[in-house]
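Subject: Protein record for review, amino acid sequence with backbone structure tokens
Why sent: The fold of this protein is of interest and is recorded here as tokens.
Enclosed: The protein record, placed directly beneath this head.
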Amino acid sequence: MTRGNYLYEDLTPAQFAAEIAAGRSWQLVDVREPWELAIASVGQCIHIPMAEIPSRQAELDKTAPVAVLCHSGGRSSRVAAYLCEQGFVRVANIAGGIDAWALEVDSSVARY
């Protein structure tokens, strides 16, 4: 998907889970607030709330794939576009966020 001049891909939670199952390495960045992470999480992730991305993006490897997750996909799509703008080589938005994750991949993940 393009936002402005920047290209990132949308992956469904099922597609992303298949990427991980196939052994592909991704940096999963959860941009939700700490209180949201306390309610539901998908396991191994790098937690950087959306507002902190500009000051903490150096914690991420620009040369490795990055997947961005939020509650429903809105915040993560904005962060994905921003990371593309900053020169990250492969960026994906987890479409539908953790809510879709709970429906498509892991029903034990709480919905809120």
Notes: The first strand starts at residue 2 and ends at 3. The mean pLDDT is 94.
